[in-house]
Design a protein that fits this description.
13 helices
């Protein structure tokens, strides 16, 4: 598509659910960057005052309709309906020289709309796990049919979808510079024992493995920060015994005090239910020099240096998980070496590099 223009094209960004998870956080970074670059930015997403995409100055908002349903069939119906509404609502708003940016594979209505309009459709793919399988097949079929370019958050994501007919670009997620500027002073603990995990309130995220780990280590202190309200958290764990050395926290706007408190950061996602394609909380923890334990599969292995800044362990292997956590926290000298290495690895996930690579894909430098 030829775009000989005297001014930069407008960017229409689409995201399904505005919450405090990883993919809207990354999109929020990009939107703020483009606003600073004086681009005209439009965002279509669900209304949520507490999400990462809320109230970004300079962004033109278009309210999207979507309601999450626990019943899978009802959820599929609502999801499909949300994309029909998106298509109809935005049809007259998008012009021939705009760019459609689809964040995650879910807003397929935006991709079809862009294809119908004959304009560039740029996908930013964060996930490889989509259920049910028929939905995954359909969504990635839409990607293959409509995408002009694909941005992948890891090599693993690229290999998973294996869409070679479309130009693919590797762009690792990054810590925001504003995040790094707010890093709190951290005093090295003489006896490291504080264990942190930040994740969604899902069984496949390893929340029950985290509880078991806490019960196995009564001499350590555990904190679990969940992307959910207190009411949702209480309901989820209503039939479970919470060990006395673990504290549950609802969704937090500021995670700095938690990273400052922690000595180690965990991601215990179960490989049989969810494959981590990156791991934003791990690089956030790196800014505080936190060694990590992560799953043995997925793009998250590109984030850590196994054996140097952390370890890859299957959370379902309770014995190995216990041994690994103990080995990190038991030896202060080794812990200090890992903490230093974690901080040094931060240079791979700089915001400037992420933005430059994305802008190159958009051809708006």
């Amino acid at each position: 598509i030829c775009r000989t223009m005297s001014q930069s094209p407008r960017i229409f960004a689409f995201h399904l659910l505005n919450d405090r998870s990883g993919s809207p956080k990354v999109l929020g970074q990009l939107l703020q960057h483009w606003v600073k670059e004086k681009r005209e930015i439009h965002l279509y997403t669900s209304t949520n005052e507490n999400g990462f995409l809320s109230d970004i100055s300079g962004v033109n908002y278009h309210s999207g309709w979507y309601k999450f349903q626990t019943n899978p069939w009802l959820r599929l119906i609502y999801f499909t309906l949300s994309q029909v509404i998106l298509f109809l609502k935005m049809w007259n708003k998008i012009r021939r020289n705009d760019i459609v940016y689809v964040n995650t594979v879910l807003p397929f209505g935006a991709a079809i709309l862009g294809r119908c309009k004959g304009i560039r459709v740029i996908y930013h793919i964060h996930e490889s796990t989509v259920n049910p399988k028929i939905l995954k097949w359909f969504l990635f079929k839409v990607v293959k049919t409509t995408a002009s370019d694909i941005i992948n958050v890891s090599q693993y994501v690229r290999q998973s979808h294996n869409i070679s007919s479309v130009p693919n670009h590797l762009v690792y997620n990054s810590n925001e510079n504003s995040y790094l500027e707010k890093v709190l002073p951290k005093v090295a603990s003489e006896y490291p024992r504080n264990v942190l995990m930040v994740c969604s309130l899902k069984k496949y995220k390893g929340v029950f493995e985290f509880l078991k780990l806490a019960s196995d280590h009564p001499n350590y202190v555990f904190r679990l920060v969940l992307n959910a309200s207190k009411q949702e958290t209480d309901a989820f764990f209503k039939n479970d015994l919470i060990p006395s050395n673990i504290t549950l926290y609802p969704s937090q706007k500021d995670l700095h005090p938690f990273y400052q408190w922690a000595d180690v950061i965990l991601n215990l996602s179960r490989p049989d239910g969810w494959v981590e394609t990156f791991g934003l909380t791990i690089i956030e923890g790196m800014a505080y020099g936190l060694p990590a334990i992560v799953p043995p599969l997925g793009g998250i292995l590109e984030v850590i240096d196994n054996g140097v800044t952390g370890y890859a362990v299957d959370s379902r292997d309770r014995v190995t998980l216990n041994e690994t956590l103990g080995s990190i926290l038991a030896n202060q000298t080794n812990y200090a070496i890992m903490a230093k290495a974690a901080k040094e690895r931060l240079h791979l996930f700089r915001e400037e590099e992420m933005m430059a690579k994305v802008d190159l894909v958009f051809n708006i430098n």
